[in-house]
Design brief:
Layout: H1 2-26, H2 31-51, H3 57-70, H4 77-119
Helix pairs in contact: 1-2, 1-4, 2-3, 3-4
Amino acid sequence: MRTLCASTLIGEFFVIGFAGLVAMQLTDISRATIWIVSGIAMLLSLLLCGMLTRPGGVQLGWALQIALIASGLVVPTMFFLGAVFAALWWTSVHFGRKVDEAKARFAAQADATAEPANAG
């Protein structure tokens, strides 16, 4: 799960940065405010890559998805891009867990197969 989710978060890092550049052109919000908010969101997306296996990591990822969609209030295109990344996040979490379960199952089968050979 970690690899798929981290890939989504890295993509979001870049999208948030580009959205900040667009927001500077489309709104009257000060550049400092845009970069502080964008910078925090970008930093959070990077930090979440390392927090995915810890309790609350996936939930913080969902919070980032909601914030990304809400950023459409400033840059309307972000409603669409936020929804796309929320769908990617769901897909990464859902199928990532399935991949982790399959890896654990295969590892258990490999251990079970290796044990009789070592016993003799």
